[in-house]
Fold this sequence. Notes:
This protein is of the alpha/beta class.
Amino acid sequence: MTQGSTQGSTQEPGSDRSGRTTAATVLHLFEQQARDNPRDHAVIAGAGSLTYGQLDVRANQLAHHLIDDGLPPGAVVAVATARRTEIVIALLAVLKAGGAYAVIDVEVPLTGQRQLASLTPYVLLTDAAHHARLDGSGLRVIRLGAEAAGISGRPTGAPERPEPGATAAVLFTGAASPRAVPVGHDRLLAAHKGWVEVIRSVPGDRHLITHGPDLTPFAAGWTRALCSGGALVLPERGPWTPEGIRRAVETEHVGVLHTDPVGAARLLMRAAAAPAGPGAASAGGGGARGRRESDPALRSLRLVSVTGDRLFLDEQDALQSRLRTGARLLNVYGLTEAAGAGTWFELPQLPGPLDDPEQLSLIGSPFPGCRADARDGQLRLTPPDGGDAIPTGDLVELRPDGLLEFRGRIRDRITTADGAFDPHAVEAVIRSHPDVGAVLVAEVPEGANGARRLVAHVAPPADAPSWPPAVDLPDGGQLREHLAGKLPRARMPQSVIRLRTLPRTRAGQENREALPQPVLTAKPGRGGAAQGSGKYTAAGGGAPTPFGLVGCGIPFLIGTGLLFFVLSKIFWPGSTDLSGVPAPWAFLFFVLYLFEGAAFAAGLVFLFGGRALMLRHGPGRSPGFTTAAHLAVAYLLVAWWPQDNFYRLAAKHDWPVQAALVYVFNIPLMIAAVVIAFYVTRKPPSPFDFEEADAPGGSSHR
């Protein structure tokens, strides 16, 4: 065991990692599995499932195609497809051909375009649909899957391997402008070996990775299954859904799950348990909210690794309590530059119970081969294959028990007139409120005079039993009462915004850039301070009123409805004549006319004022996509008033007029509905494109 250079501030690996295998790369490990166990499952994805032998043959064929296409040794190959089985084939083929792979995000084309722009790939492996969405014009392209031309006829044996370049993979940080991080063969292999030792991989393990394939846990983590004799469980099509993950764990008997904090909570905490006081948790024992019977559908899980963001001890304890006895839950701090390796923590590492587990986030000890240095308060991580220590930009403290405690991020520091402070410390204290499960503190502008105020964005625990969610969260006055004496006055949040969940990036990290901004309606009080309370409180201030219509919706409905009812008689005489309609139907149709007029007015308001709100609450979506959705919503509102008036005056068998009305109104309504459906179901890039401002010298995957 090597000795630390900084006494009291450095952790060393848990083993000396002696007795290296003869494998030089992760590809050698995979090919050994393919030779020894060709009939074992390698990829489980419904109709796309493959044995080790089949996967090796498919990868060999694509590798021959790449070599014949002139792929230079060490050249970067970009892989862009939604079919994850094809992604795995492509990764292995690129390594077999002596290149370096880079997985591109195709779910959020804007992110994928930025990733491609940060590379100079020799070739793009994709399909027609994603090629067009990524705007990959000008790049050499090879089609994958069913669109592949000539690949299936290539030799099935391993190609004569060219001398590989120094880089095995190019991984991406999750920032707004993704930064490409080259990872060498030695580092990818060392990270794999570290993971195998930490999670105690065994042949036959079935691994499921919920992260997107362009993210480090998948782009570097596939080796945990395929280089250890295990199987990689993949979705048949598209990304994983929460229900799809649960179904796959149950039906495919998944033993090892790699996910983020939200994914773990959705899977393990579906049934709410009665909450207990936060100080009642014994972090090494029964749990803050008590142990319950494990979900029978999840009994195959022997290990869950959670990475992507901080995990407080009470959260980790609650998740652990949902697993069957003997199963492990790891909180992993993974670094992109270290191919996903870093530090890890599980509750049995604690020497004993701890007070205030809701305020502590422990990231534990370094991976085998890694070294963690806490000098000057910033975590510097030495990758598992050695090399220079990487400054992560994350703040840690080495505790007396030898475990690393996460203390925040340099980039999140808030500077006030009273000095700078790390919001993590304030957020940890706010979490001591029994109804608060997650919190982010941000400083926001208060007005044109340059003043700023601290705002606490709070969300309930994942297993909160209240309905609707967030109903039990404290308002500004209640939170300040709870924090009295626990925080300095200068660090006391002046406003509270209650949310169902905090916004997160695709990597699972809390996204401060996507936090909603409060609309503070100040009411003069003593000393000019705002008074009052509510869901959004500015030192107890009033609630925001989007469109200025909160509290006056009924007068607006009636007033505008009557206005356009009168206008109908001017523009379409006779269309609203109800003299021949008996009661009570006449009144019901009159109410319909009021609603049509009110919808038209609301559509006009939204047409002129809605786009700015959509851009504000959906940051990161392309302006064109937002404009299309904005116009679709406006059309869905405004179309009813003129459409019904025209229809009521049109003769039933006047086919030219009826056809014109159908094409002017009905079909555009259908198109607008499709646009809205696509907009609301698309995975928004806004939480993902503002993940982190890179710290000097490195960026944490967390």
